[in-house]
Each structure stands twice: as C-alpha cells, then as structure tokens.
Design a protein that fits this description.
With 190 residues, this protein is an alpha/beta fold. The protein has a single domain, classed as Maf protein. The chain is 32% helix and 26% strand. The protein has 6 helices and 7 strands. Strands 1, 2, 3, 4, 5, 6 and 7 form a 7-stranded mixed beta sheet that branches. A hairpin with a 2-residue loop joins strand 5 and strand 6. Helix 3 packs across helix 4.
C-alpha cells in the first residue's frame, strides 16, 4: 500500500510529514472545483475533497491510501478564494481586518471501497490593519496563492489576534482529526 497525498501544497506535505507519515507520494490534480449552490461551508469543502479523491482514485492503485483536502475561507457567508490579483488581495484583507472569519478544510481519505470524509472549522480573528500594512504584505507576494489572501504560517501571522480551533486546519490540514482517521485505516503514527 502506498500513501498518496493528492495535493501539491507544500504546507500539506510538511504537515503530513510532521505527524509521522514519512513515506508518501504526491499527486497533482486539475479538477473542476465547482460545487452546488446552497451547501454549508463544511459541506462545500467535503464535496470538493470528495471530487478530488474520486479523481485521484482513477490515477492510483486500488490498494493505495489516498488523502485529499480542500480549504476555504468564509467571511460571514461569503467565500474568499485565492486572489486574482493584488487589488483582489487588498479587497479581501481589508474585509478581514478587525474581524473574525472561518477557515474550513474538508478531507477525504480512501483505500479501495473504504472512505471517510470530514470537515473542520476554525475561527480566526484579525486585528485592525492599516492600508499601508496590507499593501506591504501584498508586496511580499505571500497572499497571492492562498485562500483568503494570507498565510497564517508566515507573515500573515502578524495580523492574527487569536485562533479558536485547530491551528493546522488554517494551514490547510487538520492533523488531529486526520490522525484519528488514518488510525482507522491502519496507519500507525505513534
């Protein structure tokens, strides 16, 4: 059995290695990440994680253990994806300033016919931010490939007042819950 992380996210790869999964393959997927209207944030990320898992399963051996994830940022009921450009990043960060938002990650784990899906939500609270701080952060380039236009594991941490919930979920992989699921699939991490 091979463990396959169907993600090119360096953060997810790092987190998987940190919890003791040392020998895993990565797989890059290019899928349509659309989803039905009216889903809750948790149902949305679970839905996309399953779509990714279905796509990965078509490329993997039947006994491979496949892990997929999808992370989204929600401010009120609005989804904040990856910014299209610097103006979009500024708009997102300005909206997040001085407020709380929710980061949801959906995960799907599958081997053969056995599959488990779950979602974890974490509340993140930003301090108020001046426009010049936001512009300086955008100039680092860090926000451009991240949902919600920030990376909590890097300079984006300078804006975080507090986090209620799983910090690693905000990075893109809720490792505590994933560890419990992997144990049910026979992967011993401790």
């Amino acid at each position: 059995m091979a463990i396959v992380l169907a993600s090119q996210s360096p953060r997810r790869q790092e987190l998987l290695a940190r919890i003791g999964v040392e020998d895993f393959k990565t797989l890059s997927l290019d899928i349509d990440e659309s989803y039905p209207e009216g889903l809750s944030p948790e149902d949305t990320v679970r839905y996309i994680a399953k779509k990714k898992c279905d796509a990965a399963a078509a490329l993997c051996a039947p006994d491979d253990l496949i892990i997929t994830a999808d992370t989204m940022v929600f401010l009120d009921n609005d989804r904040l994806g990856k910014p299209h450009d610097e103006d979009d990043a500024f708009r997102m960060l300005r909206a997040l300033a001085g407020r709380g938002h929710t980061v949801c990650t959906g995960v799907s784990v599958r081997r053969g016919a056995q599959e488990e899906r779950f979602a974890v939500s974490t509340r993140v609270f930003f301090r108020p931010m001046a426009d010049n701080e936001i512009r300086a952060y955008i100039k680092t380039g860090e926000p451009m490939d991240k949902a919600g236009a920030y990376g909590v594991q890097s300079r984006g941490a300078l804006f975080v007042e507090r986090i209620d919930g799983d910090f690693f979920n905000v990075m893109g992989l809720p490792v505590e819950q994933l560890g419990l699921v992997l144990a049910r699939f026979g992967v011993k991490l401790l």
